Each structure stands twice: as C-alpha cells, then as structure tokens.
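[Solved] Which block belongs to which protein?

Original post:
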Amino acid sequence: RSVISDDPGNKEALLKALQEGPYGRCVYHCDNDVVDNQIVQMEFEGGITASLTMHGHSHEEGRTLRIDGEKATLLGKFSLNRSFIEIHDHRTMHVEHIDYPSNLEKVGHGGGDFGIMRDFVQVIKGNKQPTTNARESIESHFMAFAAEESRHNRKVINLDDYREKAEEQHLKSD
C-alpha cells in the first residue's frame, strides 16, 4: 500500500490512487512489459552449467533450488507454507531433510532486501566486512542485464563480449 499511496491507511486515498495512478491500470492493457516467465541458461568456465526458470503463475509464492553435483543433489524449497533443504547422496541414496524456518513473510524477496540493507549499514558502520566486492556485484548485474537482452533480442549473449561493450560505453560517457 505504501507504494500506491503516501497515506496507505486511508481507504479513500488508496481508492483515488488506484483510479488515477498507474497501479489501477489493467496489466494486459498498458505499457507494462515486465517479464512473467523466463528460462535463462548459462555456461560458466570449466563447463559448469546453470539454468534459472522463473514464472509468475504459480499457486504458491516461493523459490525452489536444485544443485546437482558429482556426489549429491541439494534441493531447497522456500515458501510461505514450508521451507526445507534436502541433501540426496548419490552413492548411499541417503536423504538428509532439514526443515528451514520460512522467512518469506518478511517481504522483499523473502527478507533478502532487508538483509542486504542491514548488512550494508553494518559494513558502513565498520561492524562487518563486506560479503562481496564491487566487481562481483557488477558481474551479477552484467549477468542479469545480458539475460534481459537475450530475452528481448532472442539471441545467445557471450558475457565477455557484453561486459566489454558495456565498459566501453561507460568510458565513452565519462
């Protein structure tokens, strides 16, 4: 509600904001082109591959993670109703199941947005070392922007070429 109106507790203000502002428009009849489903396939150095499947049409809000390795598979499910991690040992077929406290109710990417800001403030105050460096953060953004370009242009993006082009454009703009 606070995104829609400066007075989120006032029903009349919310109704007016929906009637007159961008949040009251029908998503199917406006200029909103936010992706609602996407599959991103990535190949990293050493032949490691990863895929991300995102869709906004599920009966349940949450995230599912699967990492397949040589010795085991790690499965994770993080939702409002239930969160857990499982480790499936390929050799013994043993499955270790760990229930995980659900934190999706903490809003903003399951509490992740809050966690990033909390850590940032602690780093600025000198109470904590950064979890990542600027280059690693930029690299993750390059990956996201390249995936978006791939989606729009329906083509494979070489991240090294994409990064080089983006850095050249940045230097020209300085």
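(Second protein starts here: sequence line, then its structure tokens.)
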Amino acid sequence: MDKHCNHNIPETKKGIGPCDIRYEVKKRNGKPNWWCRTHGLEASDPSGQPLPACSGAWFEPVPRHAQRDICLGEGEVALWGVVPPGIAIGDIPTEPGKVHVHFRESAGSKKLIDGSFEIVRLQNGTAEAVVESMAAQALAVSRLTSQEMVPLPCPHCREIHIDEQKFATQPHRKHQCNGCGRNFWDKVPSISNPLANLQRDLGLPPPLPPQRVHRPLNIRSSDFAAVAMWPSNSAIVSTMSRPEDVGIHVHAWVDGDEGPHLHLDETYSPVVLDGQIVDECALRMLAVQRMLAKETHVPIVALDCASCGHPLLSPTTGWIEPVTRHRCGSCGAENRTRLKSFVNPLAAIGAC
C-alpha cells in the first residue's frame, strides 16, 4: 500500500509572506510537482500547472496572544502537545492553542501559566527553540503509540521533517518533505519530528522517570456538568523537580452561579466512571483515534465481535488508520463495517 505523507501548515509559516512557488520534480503520474517554499504546501492544479498561490496564503499570522516566550531558568516548566480527550461527556470547555504549558516559579508553588498556545519560544541560556502546534501534536501521537522519533533533515532543503497524523504512528522509510515537497528515503524506517530531542538540544538534563500514581477515583457523570479524560502522556520538555504522573488525567466541571467551573483537575489511577473501570490502553488508543479522525470525520464505533461477543479494539501497533475489517483479539474472527472505521469499546461513552 502506498502511504504518502499529507501536510498541514506549521504555525510559524502562517502569514510569513507571499508564496514562492517552484517546480521540484515530477509526480508519479508524470505531472509536475509545484511546491510553495514559503508555506510548505503543494501548489499544483489538477492539470499540472502552478497555482497563483498555495492554500497557505490564506492564513493570517498567529496572533501575539496565542504565542508565549518562556525563559527556562526562571522556574519549573513543562510542555505537552494537546490531543482531544478520549472520553468527553457534556459540553467540554475548550481553549485555543495546541501546546499546553505549565509554569511555576518554584517547586510546589501555584501555577502561573496553565494554558495552551499555538507557538511557544523557549530559552535556556544561549540555547533557543520554537515549539509549534503541528509538531507538538504529532509528537503526542507518536508517544501515545509508544514510537521513537528522530529529527530528520530533508537532504534537498535541510528542513526538519514533521511526520503527522498516521505517519506519526508507524516508522517508514519514504518521507515527503514539508519544506520542498520532494520525496526522500531514510536508511531505516523512522518517524521524524523536530522536537524529538528538544530536552537535550536545550541543554537540559533528562526529566525524572514518570511514576504511576495510586490515586483511585470513582465518579458518576451525572454528578457533573461535563467530564473529560485523557491518557497521561510524557512532556515535550520538562524541568519539573518531581516525576510526571502516569494514569488518567481527569477534568470534571460543576455548575456554578457564573457558569461551569473546574472541580477535578488531577491524574488518577484506577478510574471508575459510572460503575465501569476505564481501560487505560483503550483510552490511549481512543485519544489517538480521535486525533486522526478529527480532520477526516472517520467514525469511531463501539463494536462487539459477532462470533464471541468480545469488545473489539483496533490494533494498537502498526499503521493506525481506519479499516473495514476488524479482527477480534479474543477469538480471531474477522468483523466488518460498511465504512472505514476505528473500533474502540470506550467510544460509546462520550464523543469529542
């Protein structure tokens, strides 16, 4: 199966200037591949002629309030790529930005920053780095599927490639550069992300190993205005003096005089919701499935095996993509759906 990289536009390339459209190489169908070097997007029309502008020309620059500059020497910092909650019940409050930041002046002090941004600039002495949403979310998907990453420069233009969506879930040799649109091959199957070694690149010591928490939670969704649950996911960069918690991160809102306010904001394990224990493996996969289905509107369904009645879960290894054939992990029987779909036993609990 030909698996060809699709591209979004990185936040730092939005609104940076007019298109620079160049002929790169021919496509497999023999037509020219015109590519915008400014925005890193294809600029060919169906006949093979260059477009007057690529789709990236319509984006406005990221507003200043959606950006943040942080000096790592001024406190404890941790950053994560934002993914949709696996379980979402009720009207979940959302905030713009896909790079979530925690900042404290010192260990144990109140968080001065607890919000999400599109672009975060980090400085540690003379070392500097930019974390933008596209790369941050791709890294989160790779880590949720337990994949290693490398920062892979394109041999043609030297831009560090970003493998996103399903390409962030499975190592592969063939990559299509975000910068110039050319295909290139790595020596071994790999997943590329410019943030892969960011902790080291900023001259920071490795973070403390994550630790599983024993913090049981048993709640009923009817007691809250809204509930959201995410699988824990290691930070892109962390200078925290304590290890990250491993478990299920829960937000729960209750109604107040001025609207819903956050009542629960903590990582728990184990978690029981409405009398059912939440399976962390299924929740991890559901968060990834919701991320991959977001742009394509692929259905995610709860489906029991027609042969043995066991709940079906899409494979958690290999290419994470929707299919019509779903093999039961219990009896091995093949089940089919009319549409290409993801299957997950937790899908019926809530939807994003």
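Accepted answer:
You had them paired correctly. Confirming on the second one: The mean pLDDT is 92.
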